[in-house]
Amino acid sequence: MSYYTSKIDRRTALKWLSAAAATTLAAPKMVRAATYVKTPNGYGTDPDMLNPTAPWERIMTNRQLQVAAVMTDIILPEEPPHPSPSQIGVPDFINEWVSSPYEQTQKDKKIVLGGLDWIDAVSKSRFGAGYVETPAENQTKIMAEIAKAGNANYKFFDRFRTLTLGGYYTTPAGFKDIGYIGNVPLEHYPGPTDEMKAMLETRMKEIGI
């Protein structure tokens, strides 16, 4: 059994957070927070995302990080040459997200952290082992149950899935997966090929979006 170890430093994580904040992951208010949640060391204004430092502490426990790593890889499994979320540090991104002091991320904090603890407890109760240690078929079974709309914990699953996909697809690996080449000058824009559109549609169906 392999355990997750952090893949990215705080500087990288903050840049990633900034990029994700510009997407539909967060409400516009996230860009400039109105209120702050102080750490023991305290911090002042919003961080400078061009020259980021770590103005808050990461709050996920190691156990929550391990559970998150398993869940991200079930939501978006490795498909060579495309890496799994845990291989490129998506759990670190989620940790940074729920640790940050913004309005939207603070709402997600309670949902995500509570959900991670809950799914670990359910696994121990039903299978006699934590979510990380229980066999893959049990991990997938629990995920399949909470992924159904109407389930009491669907809100947790839905938000966690959004953060997983949003984090993954704001990385170079995610861009490569969907064929995005970035800011490259073109003489003309040919538009996506039929093959690319079919690939993207298939990929989205596989991950349930």
The helix-strand sequence is HHHHHHHH
Number of domains: 1
User: Spans of 5+ residues with little confidence (pLDDT < 50)?
Assistant: 27-45, 177-182
Q: How big a fraction of the residues is strand?
A: under 5%
Instruction: Give the overall form.
Output: globular
Percent helix:
40-55%
What is the rounded Rg? 18 Å
Number of helices in the DSSP assignment: 8
Report mean pLDDT, rounded to a whole number.
78
Number of E-state strands? 0
Major sheet summary line: none
Secondary-structure-based class equals mainly alpha
Mind explaining what this structure looks like?
By secondary structure, the chain is mainly α. The chain has one domain. Helices cover 51% and strands 0% of the residues. The protein contains eight helices and no strands. The chain has helices at 10-21, 62-75, 90-99, 103-127, 136-146, 154-168, 172-178, 194-206. Helix 2 (62-75) crosses helix 3 (90-99). The radius of gyration is 18 Å and the shape is globular. It starts with 9 loop residues before the first helix and ends with a helix. Mean pLDDT is 78; it is low at 27-45 and 177-182.
Could you give a quick summary of the protein structure above?
The protein has 209 residues and is an all-alpha fold.
List the helices and strands and how they pair.
Layout: H1 10-21, H2 62-75, H3 90-99, H4 103-127, H5 136-146, H6 154-168, H7 172-178, H8 194-206
